[in-house]
Write a structure and sequence with these properties.
about 240 residues
């Protein structure tokens, strides 16, 4: 009876990790990708402020989505550690701490959304500011949030690179998947470095964009591998 319970856990555990991976991709796509795309015009403070006022509920749901992603990130990180620690303890420790650092920065970066949220509520103590000043402040904190995303993505690139190494070393997962994750980690890291240091080169941007596409393919492949095959092939170490 105990053996059957352990066997069921070994099947369900990787599937839960795969499901979390997909949920992070979906919810994060809405809160990190779609919501700012609708509201923020990085070249126009007035348009951004007007979009914010017209899409208050979307902005709130974006913040809720970020909080959900934060919780899922922490749980998923622990699950990945348990699933892959047998193959490279050093690699999985680096991957784990990097993703936890990423989650911490993501949480701190939410503060940059709180300021536009306060301005959106239009409290009385902001009456001393002109409309133009409030619009500029709103765009400033949206931009600060964007650069905060680049900072946590640096740590995510370290996570992806080292997890790719661990997957490559694993005897259970496809080696090609590990290689794609390694390349994807380089793509994330290089693109973040390019943007944080204001390197304006179309060739460099295109090169790292191609690597980022490979990262997306690798992550989706990994999520579906965990869902479909992970429960059959992965053994959980206590």
């Amino acid at each position: 009876m105990i053996f059957l319970k352990l066997q069921n856990q070994e099947r369900i555990y990787p599937q839960l990790a795969g499901l979390m991976y997909l949920l992070i991709a979906i919810v994060g796509g809405l809160s990190i990708g779609y919501m700012p795309g609708v509201i923020v015009d990085y070249d126009n403070a007035s348009v951004t402020f007007q979009n914010l006022l017209e899409n208050k509920e979307l902005f709130r749901w974006g913040i809720i989505g970020d909080i959900i992603v934060l919780v899922l990130e922490v749980v998923l990180t622990v699950m990945l550690f348990r699933l892959f620690k047998a193959y490279s303890r050093t690699g999985i420790f680096i991957a784990t701490y990097s993703r936890i650092a990423m989650a911490i920065i993501m949480g701190m970066n939410l503060i940059n959304y709180m300021i536009p949220g306060v301005i959106m509520a239009q409290p009385e103590f902001l009456n001393s500011f002109s409309a133009e000043q409030l619009e500029s402040l709103t765009l400033l904190f949206f931009k600060a949030h964007k650069y905060g995303e680049m900072v946590w993505q640096v740590f995510f690139s370290i996570h992806l690179f080292t997890l790719g190494y661990v997957i490559y070393k694993s005897r259970k997962t496809p080696k090609v998947l590990g290689i794609l994750m390694l390349i994807g980690g380089i793509g994330y890291g290089g693109d973040c470095f390019r943007q944080l240091t204001f390197i304006d080169s179309e060739i460099v941007s295109t090169f790292f964009s191609v690597l980022l596409v490979m990262a997306v393919i690798a992550e989706l492949w990994f999520a579906f591998w965990l869902l479909i095959k992970g429960g059959k092939e992965t053994k959980i170490e206590a």
